Amino acid sequence: MTKNEAALAKSWVATRHAAPTTALELREVEVREPAPGEVRIRTEAFCLDFNDIDSIYGRWVFRAEPPFVPGMLAAGTVESVGPGADHLLGARVVGCTANGQGGYASTALLTTRTIQLIPSWLTAADAAAMYFPYLLSWLALKERARTAAGDVVLIHAAAGGIGSGAVQLAKAFGATVIATAGSAEKLELARELGADYAVNYVQDDFVAQVLDVTNGRGVDVAFDTVGGQTTLDTFRVMAFNGRHLIIGYSADAAAEKAGVNLQPSIYGNFDICGVCFMAVEDPRPSRAFGMNFMSTAKCIEIWNSTLQLVRKGVVRPVVSRTIELPEVPEWLEAMENRRTTGRTVVAL
After folding, report:
1. Residue ranges per domain, the chain?
2. Which of 4, 1, 22 is nearest to 13 (CA)?
């Protein structure tokens, strides 16, 4: 399909704000033609994300009103393009969905500013599994924390979708990695991915464990996607001149609106580093609102660097399971209940 016309897509629709197993219904939905800065793909794969769960519940900061199709990301082949994107027609791509919704469908709209090309040697499933874990982790660890060889890096939720990528990148950058996770299975995965130390935060006091491992010095970098009490406890293990990366709030999405008390960083002499992954063609307009985002060119550079690490066998996509479209609600529930590891990929 090369002409711009609406397409029908088999889609999971959030009919109300509730648990995924209650709110989602499988329907046929019309997907509009792509606007400027967009392409429409025939979806081959997408991943389940915590932000999607929060969106379905109606508690994500970018609230969508039902009915809507959740899904922040999709991978597939471009079948139709908006003005100015002719060069992408027929390309295999992965990227963020328009307005952060619409990925849980057989056809999806992606924004061109976030799109990455998928090489012939990489599957769409692996590309989808790599996208957020590696682009976000690289932004956090290298661009924001300036992680270098010899640093000690603490990674929370190290066996999760994002954490599993962060562990591998931190090791690739030459760091010593202390991983936290909530079960023996997850700790084993973290070690397999390269973690030097693994701490069960459910059974053990991770603060005591980290201070023991570092002989009381603390960590140079903390990779924190959890928030809440975990963030407050992590303040206690930051080394002098450490960098605490605030990346997400998987423990409680409402915590994003509450803010973070900066006082511990004053007496602790460490930095609190905010991390927000978003790609924009021109970063300058967002400065008027006090925001700084990566350029599309920078994202392409990071993606290409990550692909080289994959080809060399230094890092890999962590696809723990591949499921079919009808299985989405039950696996979102499993993710919400912390019963998953790595990335759960939906193959179409």
Report:
1. 7-118+318-347, 132-279
2. 22
DSSP state of 260: -
First-to-last C-alpha distance (Å) of the chain: 18
Q: When comparing pLDDT for 251 and 266, which is higher?
A: 266
Question: Can you give the C-alpha Rg of the chain in angstroms?
Answer: 20
Query: Are 81 and 35 in contact, with CB atoms under 8 Å apart?
Result: no
SS3 59: coil
Exposed, middle or buried: residue 276 (CB in 10 Å: 0-12, 13-18, 19+)?
middle
pLDDT grade, residue 62 (50/70/90)? confident
pTM, 2 dp = 0.95
- Matching CATH number, 7-118+318-347, of 2.30.30.60, 3.40.50.1110, 3.40.30.10, 3.90.180.10: 3.90.180.10
Higher-pLDDT residue of 88 and 62 is 88
> Of 97-111, 188-202, 215-229, 278-292, which gets the smallest average pLDDT?
278-292
Indicate if the pLDDT at residue 258 is higher than 90: no
The CATH code of the domain at 132-279 is 3.40.50.720
The pLDDT value given to residue 269: 98
Phi, psi of 208 (to 5 degrees): -65, -40
Spacing of C-alpha 104 from chain mean position: 16
Tokens of residue 36, six digits: 């400027």
DSSP 276: -
